[in-house]
Amino acid sequence: MLYLIGLGLGDAKDITVKGLEVVRRCSRVYLEAYTSVLTVGKEALEEFYGRKLILADREEVEQEADNIFKDADVSDVAFLVVGDPFGATTHSDLILRATKLGIPYQVIHNASIMNAVGCCGLQLYRFGETVSIVFWTDTWRPESFFDKVKRNRANGMHTLCLLDIKVKEQSLENLIRGRKIYEPPRYMSVNQAAQQLLEIVQNHRARGEEPAITEETLCVGLARVGAEDQKIAAGTLQQMCTVSLGEPLHSLVITGGNLHPLEMEMLSLFSIPESQSTDGL
Amino acid sequence: MLYLIGLGLGDAKDITVKGLEVVRRCSRVYLEAYTSVLTVGKEALEEFYGRKLILADREEVEQEADNIFKDADVSDVAFLVVGDPFGATTHSDLILRATKLGIPYQVIHNASIMNAVGCCGLQLYRFGETVSIVFWTDTWRPESFFDKVKRNRANGMHTLCLLDIKVKEQSLENLIRGRKIYEPPRYMSVNQAAQQLLEIVQNHRARGEEPAITEETLCVGLARVGAEDQKIAAGTLQQMCTVSLGEPLHSLVITGGNLHPLEMEMLSLFSIPESQSTDGL
């Protein structure tokens, strides 16, 4: 049996009791670690689970899934995913390949950012399409996701923005030379995402277009959702450029306007104090 | 401290390890039981948690929250919610009231139908606004949610339909006479939801309007998501009228059209066999 097990969002104890029981009895336990991170590392998980974990990076899962499936028809193998196995990233490719090999599978769900974002008080059923904001480079500055934000807002829907993660990336030179040397991991902060968004707003204005959002649009920054030191800050997009949310992972919500009174009241619990609004400007 | 703890979707062991530790040390533990149900009852939860649970029905939470908050500033109180505390139903009203009383709170997240629905293979970020389908009566047959389905489909988005639950409802006579006698609980099935949807489609046609969906629209019925005996069936809306999914809870997804190839492939794992498509017709 192949078990796909969600780990939730915080630390080792956010696994479900059912998930933990499976992890402890499986013959091999893989940890997917390229789409998200927990606030604790692999070692803390290993200690709490009492099991060695095999790191499954992108290459492993995409190219060498055969290793994962080995003997999974006669023994139990677990594949651990931060959040839910079908949350922000879907692992349906693994399930499809297992099914073709005649290996049965079971999913053990958990919280993912897709539902835990509700902790800021915005109602989940008022969220439209989720978007991803990637790190810009000097030559690659995609803006296409902005159309989705625009469409969501036109329909009065909030937009959850998932922020880029670069884990186990090679520099161009190392890639060309075939050297398996990896850059330090990078995680986009709410500040960076807000700055890129403001550039897009300005680009729209420069082209004479009315941007879908402005510096004053109400946003919510979230950091380490589900962890002990979770931080939530509600304020304008401009404020999101300088608000201090600490360590990764960060997410950003662009509200859809016309908030429900209960949504407004919840967001007021997280509003950025006036004194902070010019920090670092 | 007030703890809001998600129980997940299946049985007693779907609580997180962190949640279980909190439940076992709290002075009082409430179980919210009017917006959803687990496949196991209160007794099974009590046995596994080793704690007595106080059922918190709608009246209790809306009118007598003071009981829940009693001494929560000096001791720990847990409020258990099937799924996630901010999933299909938000409990932000409890948090706002606690905050006003100076009671700190903490949320322990879990899977909810809002993210676990991803197990059918449809990608979560392609879901638009979630709708609720309520039981029709002879005199109350609301169709207004259908506009949201239409808007979602126009944008290529899937629609998660949450199906009505009637728990602890009084008959009109008992309500008038002030008798606290409750009707047996009722849970809408995928069959019933599909039949109501088909009536709406026919009403639109009768008014000369083009309905947003037809008998042939691809839908997904889900039952007891996260439980051992979970069932998923993909087929036309017409097939959803007769597909056999067993006990509650049921949910229905109306696809947005233009499925991603990976979505199609996943749905094919759950397609209703031809031979079943005329069952009961």
Explain this structure:
Two copies of one chain form a homodimer. Chain A is α/β, with parallel strands linked by helices. The first copy, chain A, has two domains: 2-111, 3-Layer(aba) Sandwich (Cobalt-precorrin-4 Transmethylase, domain 1); 114-269, Tetrapyrrole methylase, C-terminal domain (Methyltransferase, Cobalt-precorrin-4 Transmethylase, Domain 2, 2-Layer Sandwich). The first copy, chain A, is built from eleven helices and twelve strands. In chain A, strands 3-2-4-1-5 form a five-stranded parallel sheet. A five-stranded mixed sheet of chain A has the order 6-7-12-10-11. A two-stranded antiparallel ribbon of chain A has the order 8-9. In chain A, a hairpin with a 7-residue loop joins strand 10 (218-223) and strand 11. The longest helix of chain A has 17 residues, at 190-206. The model of chain A is unreliable at 277-281 (pLDDT under 50). The interface between A and B is large, with 55 and 55 residues. Chains A, B: It catalyses: 2-[(3S)-amino-3-carboxypropyl]-L-histidyl-[translation elongation factor 2] + 4 S-adenosyl-L-methionine = diphthine methyl ester-[translation elongation factor 2] + 4 S-adenosyl-L-homocysteine + 3 H(+).
Unreliable stretches of chain A: 277-281
Order of helices and strands of chain A: EHEHEHHEHEHEHEEHEHEEHEH
> What would you give as the CATH superfamily of the largest domain in chain A?
Tetrapyrrole methylase, C-terminal domain
What is the 3D shape of chain A? globular
Structural category of chain A: alpha/beta
- Enumerate the strands of the largest sheet of chain A in spatial order, edge to edge or round the barrel: 3-2-4-1-5
Radius of gyration of chain A: 20 Å
The major sheet of chain A is characterized as: 5 strands, parallel
Q: What's the level 1 CATH class of the largest domain in chain A?
A: Alpha Beta
Largest inter-chain contact set: A-B, 55 and 55 residues
Oligomer: homodimer
Number of structurally distinct domains of chain A: 2
Strand content of chain A: 15-25%
Secondary structure: number of strands of chain A: 12
Report the span from N to C terminus of chain A: 55 Å
Which fold name is given in CATH as the topology of the largest domain in chain A?
Methyltransferase, Cobalt-precorrin-4 Transmethylase, Domain 2
CATH architecture of the largest domain in chain A: 2-Layer Sandwich
Helical amount of chain A = 25-40%
